[in-house]
Amino acid sequence: MWPAFVDLQLNYHSMNGRRIYCFLLPLFILSLNSFAQRYDPSKINKKALALYEQARERAEAGNYINATAFLQQAIAADSGYADAYLGLGRLQLEYKNYRIAVTNFEKAISIDSNYCINYFYSYSVCLAGTGEFEKALNAISLLLKKAPPANGRRLTDALQHQKDYRFAIDHARMETDKNYVFAPQNVGAGVNSIESEYFPTLSIDGKQLVFTRRLNDLNEDFFISEINGKDWLSARPIEGKINTNTSEAAQSISSDGEWMVFTAKDRKDSYGNYDLYFSTHNAFGWTEPVNLGGKVNSDQWDSQPCLSPDKRELYFASRRLGGMGGVDIYVCHLQSNGKWSEPENLGNTINTSGDDQCPFLHADNQTLYFVSNGHQGFGGNDIFVSRRGPNGEWEKPVNLGYPINTIDDEGTLFVAADGKTAYYASDRTDSKGGLDIYSFELREKMRPFRTLWVKGKVFDKKTGAPLPSTVELTDLASKQLISKVSTDADGNYFITLPVGKDYAFSVGRKDYLFFSDNFLMADRSTDSTYTKDIALTPIEVNAKMVLKNIFFETNKFTLKKESQVELDELASLMNENPTLRIEIGGHTDNVGKPADNLALSNNRAKAVIEYLLSKNISAQRLQAKGFGETQPIADNKTEDGKAKNRRTEMRVTSF
Questions:
Q1: pTM of structure
Q2: Structural domain tally of the chain?
């Protein structure tokens, strides 16, 4: 019997986020005693046999292109040469040309399926690579039934593939969006080059793209491109003191554009081979980076950082000891002293015994994407999404599905503020060289909240002096804190604003009344971004503020549950200032009888007092007063004016 390309176990190695197949081509005598044979290699044309032998030698030397040419010539010499088709199938598998590989495998199988049974492992992989998971499952199941691999590792891998194919079939059956089209678009020559580009990061306004480029296959540096219309301009190295002649990669830039955390290798101040570094942005670019220190970094691999949009959390991947498996995802919290806390493992909802990495937290501060080979998927590394629940815990991850996830390794994902446009790196057929950056539209149910933003300045209402303060955004329905940011020394702030919920927006500083506002965005579609300069009022006698997040049913004085966020903040203000005494004033519009409005406003003020009493605020510090329609602050002739007049105010009576 003539030598054949045997379907042995594939060896996997990781390089630049890609899976590389090592093609093994030893001589092998197929044992097919249990199968009826129709194909007889001894009857193959001698010229074809000689060409096949030359192909085998080229393949063993790693010259797959020449090997392919010789196999094609062998088939031209004898179209019934099953071994040549099998060899072509295996070579095309190396290049991930799955559809061409399937064609060649099926030509060989059509000659003699029994003779080809040992190749059904590779055949199934190629079928799955084209998305034909039903046929892939049939192929691997037939292999396991007729010729189960004797090698333990190969048998384990075959069983895992069988499990993966079943998952893919079940996932497709449960998919409700049957019309989704995955159509990645190369972002163009302004960004992509003959080098590899990866780890895309888009500014929240969508106007700048920062990414990592591997130069000469050795050094990694950061580049930036600006958009002009629909085209990205020619990328340039980022300004400042970040790039060196060694590797910097996997950057995460805060939503306000002021902070960067990234990975660098083997620096003099490193705690391990890869550490996390921090830089800030100023008028001259990015500052000299500093190591985040031994509390964050370890002597193991620490990489792939991601800052939360409010800059209070730092997520990253690490292979440090004490994890749940290989690579785990951790989070550090920014403390009041400006230092990061000890890393916390995200736990077994996110992390597995495999590798869980490439965390990306969207600007909505609620949606986490990451890459895992430990959660059940389509094979290799898949991308998953997890939502932050009302209690702040991460919910069970969901696979993004085919064709975003495939049998190959998927890498890091970045989702723009619009919630639907995603960016990733791939070596698709239209790549300009190595990995290129592509954009595509996410399946709707896998999208985060579309996110806008609010920015402005906080200052003293009386003096105009800037006030470093704390800005909070809270979900009115769940009372969950969505974002909490600190202004800079000049009182400037920037906070992301996910669309789809109603929020309480508050700004606070010691010795000042907090500022109260809301963004009611659950039932409205808006493309607005907001600039809101905020004047804080010092706590003093007769200082007052409108409590904009106190809500009642129409013509009733029962507090809605959405009012609790603001009422709790008011209780906190009272606790922080134990000598503070206040008056709660109720106000209405001019609809209805004045006497009824006066009674309603008085009862609403009393309802607020009752809530504060339930929070153990002394009754001696509280008083309620209804003003009815007597003190309007807007014109009652318009609905907007009436809404402003229906309000609850707080006034300082003594301090």
A1: 0.87
A2: 4
